[in-house]
Amino acid sequence: MSIFDAGKVCTFSPISGVILFEGKPAVGARVIRVTDYQSKNQDEVVTDNTGHFEMPGVYARHVVNFLPQEFVVGQLINVIYNDQEYKIWSGVKRKREENAESRGKPLVVTCELTQDDEVINVDRQPFITKCKWDVEPDAKKDIF
Questions:
Q1: Separation of alpha carbons 27 and 80, rounded Å
Q2: pTM, rounded to two decimals
């Protein structure tokens, strides 16, 4: 880390993967990512002929990052395919480090648009998703 990285935090790690619809590549799907940290930011890409997409990491720098405070970033990814919109990723990032969503591994996902949503907790960061990635979720605890 250099002096130029002071106060810089990762609000959404670099993400890549494949979007599927009924098990087949969703060619030409719009992948729209929104981060909500101090303000909303949005970017988007279009899947290629194999359903593959890739998005760079999103970072923010602000003077308040030097202050002790809880770090909370809203994350959302929607996919528009065949004139239908699918929410494939909705979560809260609570760690400033890159790849916190996957315990330090690159965030490579496979998302099936027709799949039911699943809740996956990673280091107490909850994600509601239609995606699978290489991560061991937190153990489920019985509270009763």
A1: 11
A2: 0.88
